[in-house]
Amino acid sequence: MKVAYQQYVHKSVRGKISLALLGIMLIVVLVLLIPLRYIVNSSSLFAEQQEMQDHLERVRRAINSELAQIDALVLSMATWDESYDFINQRTPTYIEENTNNEIFELYNVQAMLYTDQNGTIVFAKTYDSQQRKSVAVPFEFFDINNFYPQLLNHPQLDQGTTSVVRAGTKLWLLAARPILTSDAQGPSRGTLIYGRMVDQAVVDRINYQTLLPVELSDYRLLAPTRQQVVSELANEQRLVSRAFNDDTLEGFVVFPSIDGKPLLVATLALPRTIYIQGERTFWLIASVVGIAGCLGLLSLFWALRRFIFYPLTSMVGDLRQIDPNQPEQHQINFASPDELGLLAKTVNQALDSLAVAQREQLAAEAKRSALQAEMLQNQQSQLQTQAALLELQEQSLAEQALPLIPVSREVLAMPLIGQIDFNRAERLQTTILHGIETYRARTVILDLTGISQLEQRAAVALGQTAQAVQLLGARLLLTGANPSIAEEIVAANIDLGQIAIYQTLAAGMQAALR
Questions:
Q1: Are residues 277 and 330 in the same domain?
Q2: Number of domains in the chain
Q3: Which of 40, 57, 67, 324 has its Cβ near the most Cβ atoms within 10 Å?
Q4: Whether residue 158 is found in the same domain as residue 277
Q5: pTM metric for this prediction
Q6: Pick from 95, 102, 101, 143: which is nearest to 126 by CA?
């Protein structure tokens, strides 16, 4: 299977084009989908965050509305002459009429605190709206001058203070105003503080107003991961959101305590509808693009197969049936006005030209063969004549090429001319040994001045000749050796210990005749 695939891809134009088109389609799809993925994801995240910010803003307005409602109640009571007189006179009638349980129910508050100018508690009461009775006042309210002194400071008489505080184990929404006369004139005789406990009733009202599933909790009771998000971003913005998973987006509205630290956290957990819809939209578009790409690719493959691959395959089949020796007997049977038809026509013309060229080539080859046969016959005749001449020359040279010249009664000289091969060296050895025996010579001078080339085997034979001369009681002198002859003698590893060597023939004769 793998071999068939490799042959299809590497040896087939169809395979190469198909692979190229598939790669192009994948690149185009990726080029389209990657930016689309970024755009859709960014848009869905932005829309999701924007929607969460809008929801959180509604939650913040709802909680601020609770604080503003309490502040309005405090303002109405703090700028009343009877409240102004109560701080000095401490009349029980004022307490009975304005701090009874019905007033708590009417105003929907659970704490009332009156302080004088020094911050000392004049009156304090807390109320449990579920049990409909008074309860113990938290310690922080009794010592409010130490725990929350900011509530008692009023730089401007026409401004109050609202905040979230922790008293005991509960969170409270507090509003404080300076106690003034009915025409809002001072000096201030103290501070009036109303408080609303952050309980389920507050949560239900906020959910009803915002139509959102809001949860109010103490910052200390949050999970560590949520605390980290709130603490990191609360100082920069009071509305923060974070997706802790792919299904739910959580938003936080942070209300700091009077000292600026995170205290009341409104948590809103909503399903990531926009993000999930964005993901679905992206995959839907990706599917459409993929299907469209596949359909386009299949259509392109069909068009290529119909108009290019099939005609090419037909032409290749016709070309395979053509006999190279008889190209005129087969033609490509394909006619079309397009480039492939022009290609088939051009190939047929080339086949016709090839047939003509082959006929001309066959005629030229026949003529050339005849000439070659005639030339070969003449060459063979010339070679035979040259061989006969060479044989005669060799016989003549064999008789005259090795002259042994008696120089004196005991000295023989043999000048060598031309090329010394192994056969001539053997004849040289035979001639010298016979001459020593015939002339009773004691010295043989072998002159190498006229030698043009000395084969290595011939050099070895010369060394053997020198040894044979020594065995006959004579000595061998070499004269006239040139550098190339000397290199051959050295390469043959001849023992030159018993051979006298002289540069010239004259020097050798003088040494032999002494």
A1: no
A2: 3
A3: 40
A4: yes
A5: 0.56
A6: 101
